[in-house]
Amino acid sequence: MTASKDGASSFTNISVEEHFSFSQSSSGGQFVGPTEDISTAADALIGRSATLTEALKAAAMNVGHKPVETTDVAAIKEVEARATGGDIKSSDSVTAVANKAVVRNKKVGKEDDKKIRLRDIVAEIDVKVTRDRSVTSEDAEAVVEAELNHPPYNHVIPGGVAESVAAAYKLNRSPSF
């Protein structure tokens, strides 16, 4: 991937596998930049203010193949409540749909191919969440805490909702990444 900034230099070798690094070429030579601690979700959001629902979509792109679990529901609930500015009461909310998916996934048991995936839940986020806003540090902390405090993992899922929201906040704080 190459992106030119003012035509004088270009960024190349941007890796989005786990973290990203870059090298910059200019007429004066080549500068190799440091590897940053930003997830793959961050690359899709570089250059502008990232919103809560965009972070959720980034998580779906990263780990959308995984079955929905209670950890995801907790993080999704936090994102949805913060994006909309209130409690989530609708049975049609993203959180409600995620809860139903967890129940169904438990009934399915070990038949992994029949489970509802995170990408399936997030697919209609633009229809279900009509209000949104930029990610703040408080949002990132709350979503990370929600994901940490719910089973089955009790840790942040690499590329998951919490990591994607944290990456969105880092980009909002320092958009020059």
Textual characterization of the structure:
- With 177 residues, the chain is an alpha+beta fold.
- The chain is 45% helix and 8% strand.
- The protein has helices at 40-43, 52-63, 70-84, 94-108, 118-122, 125-128, 137-148, 161-173; strands at residues 3-5, 9-12, 23-26, 29-32.
- The protein has a 4-stranded antiparallel beta sheet with strand order 1-2-3-4, with no helix packed on it.
- A hairpin with a 2-residue loop joins strand 3 and strand 4.
- Helix 2 (52-63) packs across helix 8, helix 3 (70-84) runs antiparallel to helix 4 and helix 7 packs antiparallel against helix 8.
- The longest helix is centred in the middle third of the chain and has 15 residues, at 70-84.
- The chain is globular, with a radius of gyration of 18 Å.
- Mean pLDDT is 77; it is low at 1-26 and 30-38.
Provide the descriptors you would attach to this structure in a database record.
177 residues, alpha+beta, 4-stranded antiparallel β-sheet, 8 helices, 4 strands, 8% strand, globular
What's the layout of helices and strands?
Elements: E1 3-5, E2 9-12, E3 23-26, E4 29-32, H1 40-43, H2 52-63, H3 70-84, H4 94-108, H5 118-122, H6 125-128, H7 137-148, H8 161-173
Antiparallel strand pairs: 1-2, 2-3, 3-4
| Secondary-structure-derived class | alpha+beta
**What is the radius of gyration?**
18 Å
- Helix amount, in percent? 40-55%
Terminus-to-terminus distance: 15 Å
* General shape: globular
In spatial order, strands of the major sheet run 1-2-3-4
Count of helical segments?
8
- Average predicted local confidence, pLDDT: 77
Order of helices and strands: EEEEHHHHHHHH
Question: How many beta-strand elements?
Answer: 4
Summarize the main sheet: 4 strands, antiparallel
